[in-house]
């Protein structure tokens, strides 16, 4: 079975489901039916959502699985949120620490330049 397209392959317009059919008894019903929310996602976005759910929404695990950076994972997640018709949290959330900044904090902690409390504070400041 083919996935339900969300756009017309000819003009790119929105498609509407007008007929459903039971595979068991072959009953057909015609009308205008709303499609599932996830049918609006591209195949790549659906793969991303499946990975997200399988990894329990843990972005750090997704970084490893997909070999992508944290900001890239967040961007893909925001793309999916928008495709579903929602707006992700404010753009101020995108001010997370870069991998280099996180590593520097951990290096400073490891070398004794900062305390555990200071490291946690620095890591949390950018996340909130």
Q: State the low-pLDDT regions, or none.
A: none
What's the total helix number? 5
Oligomer: single chain
Strand content: 5-15%
Identify the strand order in the major beta sheet.
Answer: 1-2
Q: Helix fraction?
A: 40-55%
What is the 3D shape? elongated
Give the mean pLDDT: 85
Return the structural class: mainly alpha
H/E element sequence: EEHHHHH
End-to-end separation: 44 Å
Please describe the biggest sheet, giving its number of strands, its sense, and whether it closes into a barrel. Answer: 2 strands, antiparallel
Radius of gyration: 22 Å
Please give the number of β-strands. Answer: 2
Describe, in plain words, how this protein is organized in 3D:
This protein is mainly alpha-helical and 128 residues long. The protein has a domain at 97-128. It is built from five helices and two strands. A two-stranded antiparallel sheet has the order 1-2. Strand 1 and strand 2 (28-33) form a beta hairpin. The protein is elongated, with a radius of gyration of 22 Å. It starts with 16 loop residues before the first strand and ends with a helix. The model has no long low-confidence stretch (mean pLDDT 85).
Main features:
2 strands; 128 residues; two-stranded antiparallel ribbon; mainly alpha; single chain
